[in-house]
Description:
Layout: H1 2-34, E1 38-44, E2 49-57, E3 62-67, E4 75-82, E5 85-91, E6 97-105, E7 111-120, E8 129-139, E9 142-151, E10 154-164
Amino acid sequence: MKRLKTLGLVCALILAGAVQGSAGSLSPAFEELKALAGDWEGKMADGPTANVNYRVTSAGSVVVETIMPGESGEMVTLFHRDGDSLVATHYCGAQNQPRMRASGASADGKEIAFKFLDVTNLASPDAEYMREVTFHFQDADHFTATWISRAQGKDSPTIFTYTRKK
Length: 166
């Protein structure tokens, strides 16, 4: 019986360490998101551009992404911690609000992927909404964001390559 209790305690400690380790692995990625503060120009492969602004607010706990600031199609995404993970809520021009949770980050924080959690105000099950976004941070002045939307059950990626505005 004592051996079983010891084994249970060891398993609990290992699990606690794994949870703590996963929280730590998202910290560098959240710091990379914070480092985006400022104005950026994004370019899609087929040519169109999109201006984006990032700012850090709420005592450093939230990153606000504003896509096409000041334009009629302006959209906002909020990135923040939720316990040991990171969550993104995208306030879309389609007037729905998908939420995504970080499914993981590279050890150096240079890549972070957010996967679909749920969506509010979806007009119909076939309506378009964002399902995923993955950030790849190259350096202080360059990154890519791959957004994946779903409409009528089919996923479509859109890749933006961003350069910091000077």
